[in-house]
Amino acid sequence: MNLHIGIVGCSAEGAALCYRTICTEGADVLGPHAHPEVSMHTPSLAEYVDCLERGDLEGVGELMLGSARKLADIGADFLVCPDNTIHQAFDFVAARSPRPWLHIAEVVADEAVRRGFTRIGITGTRWLTDSEVYPAAFAERELGYMRPSEAERDEIQHFIMDELVPGIRSAEAVACFQRVFARMKDEGCDAVVLGCTEIPLVMSDANSPLPTLDSTRLLARAALRRAVQAG
Fold first, then answer.
1. Boundaries of every domain in the chain
2. Which ranges of the chain would DSSP assign to H, the alpha helix?
3. What pLDDT is recorded for position 229?
4. Whole-angstrom Cα distance, residue 140 to residue 120?
5. Helix (H, G, I), strand (E, B) or coil at 90
6. Long-range pairs for 203-211 at CB < 8 Å and ≥24 separation?
7. Which of 71, 93, 113, 200 has a CA between 20 and 30 Å from the CA of residue 206?
């Protein structure tokens, strides 16, 4: 029997893309219409944003643990969180969690190594790009990285929180990401992390100046592999 995947949701669009990827790509592994059992719990995004704006990572961790406990209670065997930003609180969560987790940045970093990339651009919310979530994962694998400039972080934050999270997809957002990715390419990056789980809604290898590491789908595929291989 395949393992039961628990999704600790934060923002709806990214969580939905992760869920859809597991379910639709499950058929490629398990046969028509088949996928592992999947459950998701999502508290109000406003609770997460309030904690992030106050710099309360322990509060973020408590919200994640609340979801983890509810998912464990209904049978989830392991957990994933399709939100890069709140992985800042992972250290508060892992030791107290009722179930093991896959870490999104570790999944992405492993894929970067597998594909032979050496210097990775990091994009996402300002909370994420100011943090050590990706630098720590990259450093463990001896990967170089680049963060956006201060002005770029502010612009990206706007498009993520004011457009992508509410489900708005604009040409202006695409142009912003393309400018940032192009600068990173000019300064030596050979790939870029789509480090907000909503960025893949508007950016992909098809319109990016750099090869992309789609954190949402990479996490979903890692969860699918774990569920199926253990089953």
1. 5-103+218-229, 104-214
2. 12-30, 45-53, 57-73, 90-93, 104-114, 126-129, 133-140, 150-159, 171-186, 215-229
3. 85
4. 14
5. helix
6. 203/174, 203/177, 203/178, 207/174, 207/178, 208/177, 208/178, 208/181, 209/178, 209/181, 209/182, 209/185, 210/121, 210/181, 210/182, 210/184, 210/185, 211/115, 211/117
7. 113
Structure letter (DSSP) for residue 99:
S
Q: What is the mean pLDDT of residues 164-171?
A: 95
Q: Is 153 exposed, middle or buried (0-12, 13-18, 19+ CB in 10 A)?
A: buried
Tens of pLDDT, residue by residue over 182-225, are 999 999 999 999 999 999 999 999 999 999 999 999 999 999 99
Q: Reduced to 3 states, what is the DSSP secondary structure of residue 54?
A: coil
Tokens for 114? 């597998």
Confidence of residue 1 (pLDDT cuts 50, 70, 90): confident
5-103+218-229 folds as Rossmann fold (3.40.50)
Q: Which two structure tokens, joined as six digits, stand for 162?
A: 């004011």
Residue at token pair 């969690």? 97
Domain topology for 104-214: Rossmann fold (3.40.50)
pTM value surpassing 0.90: yes
What proportion of the chain, given as a percentage, has pLDDT over 70? 99
Please check whether residue 152 is in contact with residue 125, taking contact to mean a CB–CB distance below 8 angstroms: no
